[in-house]
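Notebook, p. 212. Picked up where the previous page left off. The plan for this session was modest: take the two constructs that came back from the sequencing core last week, fold each one, and keep the raw output in the notebook itself so nobody has to go hunting through shared drives later. Recording the first one now, exactly as returned: residue sequence, then the structure token string.
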Amino acid sequence: MADKPAIVLVHGGFVDGSGWRAVYDLLTHDGYHVAVVQNPTLSLQGDAAVARLIIDAQDGPVVLVGHSYGGAVITEAGTDPNVAALVYIAAFVPDAGESVNTLLADFPTDVPGPPILPPKDGFLSLDRDKFHASFAGDVPADLAAFMADSQVPWGVDALGGQVTEPAWRTKPSWYLITTNDKMIPPPAQRTMSGRAGSTTLEAAGSHSIYVSQPAAVADLIKQAASAAAAPQ
């Protein structure tokens, strides 16, 4: 494994790191060391600090991977000198001074928005009855129901956290665009990945493609890892 960078996986809002299990299994089978960040999802700066703890615990360079809100986290935390590459999976890619909220405000208005319920005590959740269709359309119904019932409350402050120095401006990035996504519209994904200059791949999958199609996600991560390991 000495010639392979470590892989650090960062989850998004409403879920936790266990959703990465199938991607983790594929990558470790291929000889990668993989670590999974568990975001508190209370604030962007707090989540970035937790990600940096995991990044700095790795031996050597890191490919930093973020799903959904995790894209904002890796954008903020990815300036760590140990990070060699960024991989965005159906993710937010903020620029300096931007937050998830500012990106949400720029979403196309001709498509339904995410079924986020009004905040309660400073936290957000998704409408359970709409979770399967919106968040996990290509995930089996029983697993989608479990994901809906095990939601992690997402702190309102995390959505408002502004990126200070976007890592994608100085680090190479890859982006998996999910063309059946009902949470982050594909046109928004294309706009964000294009602005970041990411190497992009499109797949017909839901927002939960890391659960439903782990091989597609692992393959893109390995592409980034191979580029990061290549002699400069």
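Okay, moving on. Second construct, recorded in the same format:
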Amino acid sequence: MRLTNLDMDALRTFVVGMDAGSFVRAAHRLGRSTSAVSAHLKKLEAQAGVPLLRRSGRGLSLTENGEILLTHARRLIHLNDEAVAAVRGMELEGWVRLGLQEDFGEAVLPQVLGRFARAHPKVRIEGRIARNSELTEKIASNQLDLALAWDSRGIPYGERIAAVPLRWLGSARHDTHWPIDHDQPLPIVALHTPCTLRAIACEHLDRHGIAWRLAFVSPSLAGMWAATAAGLGIALRTHIGRPASVCILDPAVHRLPSLPSLDLVLLRSAKEADPVTDRLALIIKEALRETLPNTLSEH
């Protein structure tokens, strides 16, 4: 059987189009015309020898073969970019300071650090896991170069990565029965102030006339997870980093307010970033797409 070499530019167009949710937006992101994007997709289908897309209303959806190719395309592009970065990136030297929310410590940080270190062994990363308020303060005071944070308004150099749904969370091991029409206030597990998510929880409960009390306050996310798992109360968080001992509560079943999504933002301390910071920012975004594909809804 004659082997076919898939066109890397066409694969990249295909992946960007699916991530953007529209090949018109993909054309804008890639700096190409829509006709050029369409030509890339036709070329890719010809090389694959099977249909990859089907019409779905006004848009396009993947065929079964398209879904298979998309998974492989992401891996091929990552390997291509990592190979190029490994060759060219040997010239990168220096250090970069990165801050992350506790939520992303286990889910994203190991992958980011490993990938970056392999591609750029001469660059030193100084990492910090911290609360949102500390991350934004250190970005503003130029003590961090990059930070992955929640809804950080007021920071001039921030890139909105995704909108992540907020969830009410309770113990997976203990029955969570706190009918909100009873006389007793709803027990809440939260982090110490200042905390963006704690403020959102209180605001939504107050708005719906639901009495509440702070049943447990923790300085760390690990403590909050432990108290929630023990059944001391319910918490408000995204489900990123959620342990198996904590489950997502259905607002309709527990008569809790519906919740909005929260912006995930990649913050920079300076508008004109250096090549090291730019490269780390790219790897962070790639890691988020690969590690949390069902969590992130890109905008």
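Notes on construct two before I forget. DSSP finds ten helices and twelve strands in the chain.
Flagging for discussion at group meeting.
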